[in-house]
Amino acid sequence: xxxxxxxxxxxxxxxxxxxxxxxxxxxxxxxxxxxxxxxxxxxxxxxxxxxxxxxxxxxxxxxxxxxxxxxxxxxxxxxxxxxxxxxxxxxxxxxxxxxxxxxxxxxxxxxxxxxxxxxxxxxxxxxxxxxxxxxxxxxxxxxxxxxxxxxxxxxxxxxxxxxxxxxxxxxxxxxxxxxxxxxxxxxxxxxxxxxxxxxxxxxxxxxxxxxxxxxxxxxxxxxxxxxxxxxxxxxxxxxxxxxxxxxxxxxxxxxxxxxxxxxxxxxxxxxxxxxxxxxxxxxxxxxxxxxxxxxxxxxxxxxxxxxxxxxxxxxxxxxxxxxxxxxxxxxxxxxxxxxxxxxxxxxxxxxxxxxxxxxxxxxxxxxxxxxxxxxxxxxxxxxxxxxxxxxxxxxxxxxxxxxxxxxxxxxxxxxxxxxxxxxxxx
Length: 426
Fold this sequence. Notes:
Elements lengths: L3 H6 L1 H9 L8 H36 L7 H37 L18 E6 L13 H8 L2 E2 H7 L6 E2 L2 H19 L3 E2 L5 E2 L1 H7 L18 E2 L4 H5 L5 E4 L5 E10 L18 E11 L4 H18 L4 E5 L11 E9 L4 E10 L3 H6 L1 E4 L7 E2 L1 E9 H11 L14 H4 L5
Helix pairs in contact: 3-4, 5-12, 7-12
């Protein structure tokens, strides 16, 4: 959520930054409602002050000898009752204005950071680096991962559609074992890098999705329970970040680094016809997520290290990738700055996103009221939150199957996975 004070004091700056995004955002309704609310608050404060003054005057008059039911005291009481009646009218109006402002603020995305490249769409994203060209397969006629999986008997989409619908898969035998091995490998690496593992609920309430920015904007992307205020998580970012919602942390508790392996559930609304086969775009998929809550002073450094922690997984697996810095027009709703990691898929001859590493600054913390307090200081500050995939398991499996496929149709496992699977070949 954006800072209302910033909008009030620097509306031109806020509007300019929002205009750099891909979308149409107008802060004038908020500016106008805020002015109305503050005018009303000023009037209410004046009336409240006069009401308090009348209460004191009545007591003083009676104490000095005036009759409690006399004309002078009764006149003051009548005025006091008028003040209270006006206050009872103003308070709900002010509350309603605040609610309207809150609703509008929840629809505004984060402001791009000053270092984010300015651009209209993904064509203006900036390639920061690429790694592993020497590991790209040189063979021709390479199969896509879903054909490899079907030939090996480790991936079955037809039976998944029978028991659910399309955009689900069943992993069988070595396929299930490979998925499990990838998860354990990634968790082991991130725990060794200093992340504390958590295993959160897979169902969260509306407040949790609102805090991290999925609601109200992405309601159609999410699966909601019909009879409860519960939603299936789209990513572990939601429950892990919300572990600290409405809390004031001590400064020495920061930074907090968590990793979590969970299934993720997404409707994939708006992606009709895209990646209908295989592991790239599913309604349910596993992911290892990295989440950080940090002191604002270390935010940028923490972001860079988070990106490196995700990149390290790809390098350990010897999967070629490139790192892309997103331009303002391609940023996600809550991100101020974001790097995407894209893994090489040889069957398509292109890179595909496998991790998105975002710095939200205080955007999520403001929505979720997550603050920290320095020792010896009176006030509190909002933490900065960051997260990224470390990595998406299905897409990693797709990349392993394609990059490690052999001429005889088998798949040689990356060296780092062989101890987990106790085998070298699929």
